[in-house]
Design goal:
seven-stranded parallel beta sheet; binds guanosine-5'-diphosphate-alpha-D-mannose; alpha/beta; single chain; binds NADP nicotinamide-adenine-dinucleotide phosphate
């Protein structure tokens, strides 16, 4: 009897243990499948109704939605800051890159901005399917096409790629607007350039003959005419901002102004290397990027679309830029020699600080760009606020601050 009781209690013990484990497992399965179901429904709901955007938009009461290509670049980053202050919702197209390319817009990757006011999308101007999808999904009121292979010298090395991005990229966006039947809904800004003038009469305005002198300029001219054509053919509100060189602390390091201000800051901090430049006598009409950004927005707020030249009206040589930059750290540059043998010398120590390197020459050079921006000043009520001297000094100052 005792033996039977022992067997039964043992059986009961194991049965209860098994039952406990069984029910715990069942519970886990039930709870986890219930929560995964809830998650799935929630995700579907968000996807179906684009809920995140709706909630954000509802709370934020945005004035408008702007799509910016090239948001990681100098101008794109400033434009995003400018439009955020105007209470725009920003859609930014950025390229996939193996290293970080968001340095200029890191401040947008913050809790109350990212996916609240600023919505990044991976994309590329060479991929029309992706451009169509982004426009369809985000429904912008304004598109600012600032994305480009923007380096003139590099365009001689990569002409086909430059044309694909800078010429066809603009065309792809214009076609996307047409394909989605948004001709009357979306306003389009094209980042055109003074480079389309090439070597022609000086100063250059909206009526000046074009004479592009690089694959970059030729591509940008294609984009320019595409904008004019789509405006005339399909009544799209599309404009060309023919902007002359504009610079600032966010300027890419391989453009001559930033190359100089970085070298000056380096020199000041003790890294006393020679600065190698190309054509010292080229003249450019240098303005401030922050100043010029406003005109992009102003152009899209007009009643009728038309193209504008944006410039300071003053041109300086590369030499003058370098002189002004070294002056900020107390060095007076004097020039000696000619052509490739010309050098910039510290007037006090007689040390050579600047030399010419032919590698920086372009197969065809634009000698002087100087803009006549009377139309923009009159119709957009705009004028440049930053002088050449202040621009150079501000850039050197920032580059020095970065080193300390
Ligand atoms: P930038 O600093 O060189 O910026 C160019 C931007 O375009 C970057 O965000 C770059 O992305 C992006 N980009 C390059 N290739 C692309 C592609 N295939 N698909 C999508 N995006 C691409 O130029 P910026 O000085 O800001 O100039 C803005 C625009 O104005 C450009 O179109 C330029 O040609 C034009 N523009 C400039 C000036 C000037 O003086 N700054 C004057 C007249 C016209 P990553 O960051 O990944 O490289
Ligand atoms: N980059 C560079 N590097 N340019 C040099 C150098 C050098 O070492 N030395 C002399 N230069 C001369 C160039 O030959 C050119 O005449 C002038 O300096 C300016 O060159 P960049 O700063 O490279 O600018 P850019 O004028 O060719 O093109 C910029 O402005 C255009 C608007 O006119 C870019 O931002 C373009 O995207 C823009 O369209």
């Amino acid at each position: 009897m005792k033996f039977i009781l022992q067997i039964m209690s043992g059986f009961l013990y194991h049965f209860l243990q098994f039952a406990c484990i069984f029910f715990v497992h069942i519970n886990i399965i039930l709870v986890s499948s219930a929560s995964s179901l809830v998650c799935r429904i929630y995700r579907l709901f968000i996807q179906q109704f684009n809920l995140k955007t709706l909630i954000d938009s509802k709370h934020m009461k945005f004035k408008k939605t702007a799509l910016i290509t090239g948001i990681t670049g100098q101008d794109g980053s400033h434009l995003a800051d400018f439009l955020l202050k105007k209470n725009y919702k920003i859609i930014g197209i950025k390229r996939r890159s193996s290293s970080f390319n968001t340095e200029r817009i890191n401040h947008l990757y913050k809790k109350d901005i990212l996916n609240v006011k600023y919505f990044p999308y991976y994309g590329d101007l060479t991929d029309s399917t992706n451009l169509v999808r982004i426009i369809q999904e985000t429904k912008p009121d304004e598109i600012y096409n600032l994305g480009a292979q923007s380096h003139v010298k590099t365009s001689f090395e990569t002409p086909e790629y430059t044309a694909n991005v800078d010429a066809l990229g603009a065309l792809r966006l214009l076609e996307a607007i047409r394909l989605l039947k948004k001709e009357n809904k979306i306003k389009f800004y094209q980042a055109s350039t003074s480079e389309i003038f090439g070597n022609t009469e000086i100063p250059q305005n909206e009526k000046t003959k074009f004479n592009p002198a690089s694959p970059y300029a030729v591509s940008k001219l294609f984009a320019y005419w595409s904008v004019v054509n789509y405006r005339n053919a399909y009544n799209i509100f599309a404009v060309n901002g023919i902007l002359f060189n504009h610079e600032g602390e966010r300027r890419g390091a391989t453009f001559v102004t930033r190359k100089i201000t970085r070298a000056v800051a380096d020199y000041y901090s003790g890294n006393k290397k020679i600065l190698y430049l190309g054509n010292l006598n080229a003249k450019r009409d240098w303005g401030s990027a922050k100043d010029y950004i406003k005109t992009m927005w102003l152009m899209l707020q007009k009643k009728t679309p038309t193209d504008y030249v944006v410039a300071t009206g003053v041109s300086k040589t590369v030499k003058e830029f370098a002189q002004e930059a070294y002056k900020y750290i107390g060095i007076k540059i004097i020039w000696s020699g000619k052509g490739v043998n010309e050098v910039g010398i510290d007037s006090k120590t007689k040390k050579i600080l600047i030399k010419v390197d032919q590698d920086y020459f372009r197969p065809t050079e634009v000698n002087e760009l100087r803009g006549d921006s009377r139309k923009a000043r009159r119709e957009l009520k705009w004028k440049p606020e930053v002088s050449f001297k202040d621009l150079v000094q501000e850039m050197v100052k920032k580059d020095i601050e970065r080193l300390y």
